[in-house]
Amino acid sequence: MDVFNIYALGSIGSGKHLFFDTLNINFRAQEGLYKVYSNDYSYKSQQYKYIIYLISGSFKDPGLLPSQKTMCDAVIFFANPLIEEEFEQINSIIFRVSEVHPNALIVLVTQNVFGNFDSLPPDIQEVAMMNGAALCDLEENYNLKLCALNYNLDEIQSLENGDPMVQFKFFKLFNDTFYDIIHDLIERHENEDLLRPIRTEEL
Which of 17, 131, 186, 190 has the smallest set of CB atoms within 10 Å of its CB? Predict the structure, then answer.
């Protein structure tokens, strides 16, 4: 059984702790995950099998996107495609990351609006259909993985109020999502053409 290291980059509040606290439970017994994370760039890329970059909720600042010198296998961000301003930023992030890191897996974690589609107002339904179709096109043309989680706004409020049942549901959603991301990376790394360049010097 291989033990592999994962290194997560990202700004404060981008979800690095959530990422590893979630994964470590699933992987501790199965893959022997060694968790390590940092905000700096003083790493050697060959030490880590997977390097993941997380973009925080304040992703509108382009400085929070991975630069060309940042080695990464996946870029994860959270956004709501029903908000037009955020949808524009989704496009911007996908295009920029694809230019700088053409082999990186881009992961958009969002709400599954179609799980509650009938309860949406008619004007929001129209936006959901239009932007949903656009996201499907992006998924076909870029290394984009859509992770649509089934929750509603009432549950977000309950989560903030500390409801243990809702907390468990969200933990399970994130757990399954991050687990799938890691296994996607494992499959992609079986294809040598998708491997990131090995860089031996410190960045």
Answer: 190
